[in-house]
Design brief:
Elements (H helix, E strand, L loop, with lengths): L2 E5 L8 H12 L2 E6 L11 H9 L7 E6 L4 E10 L17 E14 L3 H8 L3 E3 L5 E2 L11 E5 L23 H13 L3 H4 L4 H17 L8 H29 L7 E4 L2 E4 L10 H8 L4
Parallel strand pairs: 1-3
Antiparallel strand pairs: 1-8, 2-5, 3-4, 4-5, 6-7, 6-8, 9-10
Length: 293
């Protein structure tokens, strides 16, 4: 999955993201416009590379668009990129007075970090490499970046990986007061901030949800806590998959031939290198870890 990042300016409108979210909830999709800076009097240096990426984007091959003002950071699931706005593209009215270079058509939106510059800098942006700047770690200070900018992730995260294809994250993008309090409690008393945000995004959500459900029912003698156990099971599953990918990536860096070790699932042949593309079952990992190589 390709990834690009754009800085959005809250001074255009104070509630920029909320206006997009309102249309997204009503229409099921919304266009985010990349506004051309009045201070930029030159062509985008990587326009051709970006256009190549845009041509391949589709519902089956979406792109992750990171949107930040450095105070908060969101990620959008992009289905298409358009140069011209048609009547079919819905977007907030404030764009009418601005020079928009590109329209990113999105069908889902997820808030990664809200109102925490230091966490965004150290946990989210530190995971980015600037593709067209010698692939170095994203730098907030002293850079010559021109946006939109392509980035890769040191540890790949699909922020829209979900079991139910009909589920949309934007329906619950802003956490309730209770969810925020439970999240802060988990960070303060159970997991340091760095550890909590190293979990997969869905693991974070399941941790918060499981804690709320447990707290609400812990004095109910008729409640069996199966839903809580299920959420913790999903957390373990997600984190183990992430661990295995990290482990095999490390092993391959030490012994490249490991990437070509064969295994099969339901009659289909694979090699270890396929683990980074196709999620295997636990039996496969058990089989591979027993391999003497």
């Amino acid at each position: 999955m390709k990834n690009i990042i754009i800085l959005y300016n809250p001074y255009y409108q104070e509630n920029v993201m909320e206006q997009h979210l309102e249309i997204l909830k009503d229409k099921g999709s919304v266009a985010f416009g990349k506004v051309k800076s009045a201070l930029r009097d030159y062509e985008h240096p990587n326009e051709d590379a970006l256009n190549e990426i845009y041509q391949d984007i589709s519902k089956d091959n979406p792109m992750q668009l990171f949107l930040t003002d450095y105070n908060s950071i969101y990620v959008a699931n992009v289905l298409a990129v358009k140069t011209d706005k048609t009547k079919l593209i819905k977007a907030p009215k404030y764009y009418d007075a601005l020079d928009v270079e590109k329209w990113y058509i999105i069908d889902d939106l997820r808030l990664i970090v809200d109102n925490d510059f230091q966490l965004i800098r150290d946990s989210v942006l530190a995971n980015f490499n600037a593709t067209n700047f010698n692939n170095r770690t994203y730098a907030i200070y002293g850079n010559k970046y021109v946006y939109p900018m392509q980035v890769t992730m040191k540890e790949e995260i699909n922020y829209f990986d979900k079991e139910d294809e009909d589920f949309k994250y934007f329906t619950n993008i802003f956490k309730s007061k209770q969810e925020i309090e439970v999240k802060n409690s988990l960070i303060n008393y159970c997991f340091p901030t760095k550890i909590f945000y190293s979990f997969a995004p869905n693991s974070q959500d399941n941790l918060i949800s499981a804690e709320i459900e447990y707290t609400q029912n812990k004095h109910n003698p008729l409640y069996d806590f199966s839903a809580v156990v299920m959420k913790y099971s999903k957390i373990i599953e997600l984190e183990l998959y992430g661990f295995f990918k990290y482990l095999f990536k490390y092993l391959i860096s030490k012994t490249s031939s490991i990437a070509n070790i064969n295994y099969s699932v339901q009659g289909q042949d694979y090699i270890v290198d396929d683990l980074f593309t196709y999620k295997a079952n636990y039996g496969t990992y058990n089989y591979l870890l027993r391999n003497e190589k």
